[in-house]
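Problem: given the chain below (408 residues), write out its structure.
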Amino acid sequence: MTTAPKRIPIPKNGVDYRGKVVLAPMVRSGELPSRLLALKYGADLVWGPETVDKSMIGTTKRVNPFTSTIDFTRLPSNGSRIPTLEQKESLIYRLHPTREHGRLIFQIGTSSPVLAVEAAKLVGADVAGIDVNAGCPKPFSTSGGMGAALLRTPDLLASILTALVKEVGEVYEIGISVKIRLLETAEETEALVKRLCRTGITGLTVHCRMTAMRPRERAIREQLRMIAEICRAEGVACLMNGDVSSREEALKLVEEFGVDGAMIATAAEANPSCFRTKEEGGLLPWREVVEEYMQIALEVDNRWGNTKFLLSQLMPGKAEVYRQVASSKGYMQICEILEIEGLYDQARDVDERLLIGQEQQKAVKKAKTKNKSAQAAGGKMVGIRSFDIDRKSPLAERGVGAGPAVAV
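Solution.
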């Protein structure tokens, strides 16, 4: 008589990662409109962008009457201890309680068990799981001991996961998971995976690259089968990430390496219809995808800077309207350029509600002031790139622009 494989129980409000093809966590490309579009095209689960623990702590949870979303907002610090009436609240995280219900995983950036728990408790009742980012190689993450830096402090990483399992997972009955990268040797990776799987987590994702590797470098899959076997022995679901371009390829890789599921990142950023099966028609033309994205972005009052960035990813650079979109100043102008007449009224309303024209004028004026200052000092001109206005918002203020909301 064969023994059934061990499985860590999936909590009542959690979700099993097994058999899933999911949207990977991505800064900018993991905001609400991108997640909703991925779900529409067939993603089984979606990860939100890494959100730093300290940015969530101190937020106010609000229900937005215009978008029916749940918004977590706070006043920007800007070095001021006393908020002024003129200060506008920043939206740190936005989710849709019905359209993402049971399918959203909140990824947290942290280097502290205490702060991780404090931040995760704020969103625990509204998501299907909490995932710890232990793989991001970017300096904004590693400089604070977060992301891939945690791979060098396994005791700390294990303590963070254990605390989240006990104080958040068990309380809100959701799963806790972790996303890692490969270490330099298979032996090091093996030891780390075994350690993490024994913290009580329900899922582990491995990005098949080492910390120093860039996205353009081909994913390394030699250690993948070994990692999958460890996870299976410990009863933990194992997802793979790295160079997965479609649902079909994801399922082939799952079969080949014995993992439980796969994440799609870059391919989904360029065309989220990659989650569609061949039977459903596969990839859609970029114009159709852009129109769907615009519809959703307007429905959830997405921050203009984020929408403009995503359009730059969804549209081919050689498209005739690409440059026009790059120099556009608001939703209405985009709809006119792309001739999406059915969205004109909605676009006008959102432009007005989010003060988009005014915000763009302020950005341009600020850039021109910097140019004049640089010229006066004998320096170089500060370039203004249309797609880059509002791109580099502070880490604690990543997300879509906040509108009027009702606190809950």
